[in-house]
Specification:
2 copies of one chain form a homodimer. By secondary structure, chain A is an alpha/beta fold. In chain A, about 25% of the residues lie in helices and about 25% in strands. At the A-B interface, strand 6, helix 7, helix 11, strand 12 and strand 13 of A face strand 6, helix 7, helix 11, strand 12 and strand 13 of B.
Chain lengths: ~375, ~375
């Protein structure tokens, strides 16, 4: 029997939980009665709330008996914030369970499948396994490595600049790109910047409502030399903020934050790796690095970045450092930068060619 | 009567001359007899050789009489290296001439159209005018501005680097991108570098046979501090080379080049603008800037760049200058750079988002 169509539906249900299930994975499930009719559907929405299997079986009620449960991840067999799903599956009396992938969580790791088989159920494993693993790549990465999946995002000009020599950086990319960044934040559990970005850009770092609650805003600062008037410290009602630092931060600086009621996390080491281990402990599956070049490079060097999202804006910013594509352009404002008009992009083997015509500067 | 299909054919004929007609434009022509049957085709292949109209009329022979000439550019009315085309058109006895666009060359500039009309021919002007102007954008730009059309090309990593901090730059882009650059050179009359690129990269700067003759290789050097062992000076049989400099170059340095038989062009000023005016005088319609950041930025500042071709390679090179996307990555070789796996690109308003997964370095 080909269970792929049913599993694809279950995966679509699972994806409805995107952004809110951490530290849990996204899971979707559906129940067919013994005649193969769809009688229940469910997905995991939020940690502490019912798992997908329980939701789908509850909807199916008595019609699950002798039927089939299709679920995107192995049912759990341990007591967590909710009871083990295997209990519910056995209680519902289904004859068959179809699973996309085993749960990499060491508390499950095949134990759920073994328990169902021991109880006499037919268990099919591996249907649309690749798609299921891709959907939960962040969860799988966190369970296996002990660190959340890291996504590094930046916006730059076509000549690889993220700011003018005078540090002006708002706005290199356009409104659609900025909206996309808000949605991206909505799929992450935390958004990370360094103290430098906080001082230079004073970002708000929210998803503008794309995720409820908003992702945790994290500042990694070894010095704790932070501007307390920064937006992220003045908008605690909008989103939570955490300042992470190492043991070298001065007692005085720590106390200054404590007095202001700003939450601190002291790490064994003030490094990207130390931070991610701390954030894994707080239930983060996926984090977004929105930091400056020094912290971003450290994150890449320490294996804290699994994905890069580069927004390349059709403009040229120039600057003195000699081995980037352009030298001095004598600009003092982003709006003075030459506008490029896209003439299409083309893959050239692994490379991307993007052709542009050069238009006049927008503010002559 | 809709002449667009015939004009599109004539434009396709014209494009066969791409790269070799300078300082002339690309021109294509076809002749229909008085019953509308195609009886002749031609295109301009090389300066000094027959113009498209003459070629097409010759092929049509007597059958042109009473027919129609369709031509992508106004027939010339002045004696150049070949006789005026208007003479040939009138001699052939066609009743109608369909023209895509007037010739911006001040020696023609509507004079050809006026002469044909004065002789009693029906002249239709403006069929597929936009496409014709685009095809000859370089020629039109050169005739109007006195300077060749400038195309600036670079290859960079996704983080906007064209070399490692230790100057290694070969090869950031892949073989298909490098082949594309050879074909691009084949559509240009000259390829320009500065002395720094010559000293750092020692490029050959040919089209690898895509154009015959090869485009002129030009070095713009104010100091004339050039390595005479460079490939471009050791391969005169493959392609011609020209060294351009300003009045400030020392007499000794000039004489050193003269003794080696290297052609020099002394400019009133050692600037991109001065160089382009010199190259316009040598019949260049389109030039390719393949220079380093300082000269490239000067060319942009002086309006010497009309088009930018950025090849963005899926890799990260890092470096210290703080306001490019990444800081230090501790790389000493391009092959050590992290490999990015494209996950697709998406337009976001005018911006381009390119998503990547981060793979292992290719030489671990």
């Amino acid at each position: 029997m080909n269970w792929r169509p049913q599993m694809e539906r279950a995966l679509a249900l699972a994806a409805l939980g995107a952004g809110t299930t951490s530290p849990n994975p996204m899971v979707g499930a559906l129940v067919l009665d013994q005649d193969g009719q769809l009688v229940g559907e469910g997905y995991h929405c939020r940690a502490g709330e019912p798992h997908a299997e329980v939701m789908a079986l509850a909807q199916a009620a008595g019609r699950a008996r002798g039927g089939t449960l299709v679920v995107t991840l192995e049912p759990c067999c341990h007591q967590g914030r909710t009871p083990p799903c295997c209990d519910a599956v056995l209680a519902a009396g289904v004859a068959r369970v179809v699973v996309a992938m085993a749960d990499p969580d060491p508390r499950v790791a095949g134990g759920g499948i073994a328990r169902l088989r021991a109880a006499g159920l037919e268990v099919v494993v591996g249907v649309a396994e690749l798609e299921a693993a891709r959907l939960n790549q962040a969860f799988v990465h966190r369970v296996r490595s002990g660190r959340p999946w890291g996504l590094l995002k930046w916006a730059m000009s076509l000549d690889g600049r993220t700011a003018l020599p005078n540090d002006e950086s708002q706005w290199i990319s356009g409104p659609l790109a900025r909206q996309w960044v808000h949605r991206l934040r909505g799929r992450c559990d935390a958004v990370i910047v360094g103290g430098g970005t906080l001082r230079a850009d004073d970002p708000l770092l929210t998803s503008r409502g794309a995720r409820t609650p908003e992702p945790l805003r994290v500042v990694l600062s070894c010095s704790l030399d932070l501007p307390v008037a920064a937006q992220i410290f003045q908008s605690e009602g909008v989103a939570a903020t955490l300042v992470a630092h190492g043991p070298e931060a001065s007692r005085a600086a720590q106390e200054r934050l404590d007095r202001l009621g700003i939450e601190r996390l002291q790490l064994p080491q003030c490094t990207p790796l130390g931070l991610l281990e701390g954030l894994a402990g707080r239930g983060c599956n996926q984090v977004l690095w929105e930091c400056g070049p020094t912290l971003a490079a450290a994150a890449v060097r320490q294996g804290c970045v699994q994905q890069v999202a580069a927004v390349i804006a059709p403009t040229l910013l120039g600057g003195e450092p000699a081995r980037t594509p352009l030298g001095r352009l004598d600009l003092t404002r982003i709006s003075e930068a030459p506008r490029l008009i896209s003439q299409g992009w083309h893959p050239l083997g692994p490379d991307l060619l993007w052709l542009h015509a050069l238009g006049p500067a927008s503010d002559p």
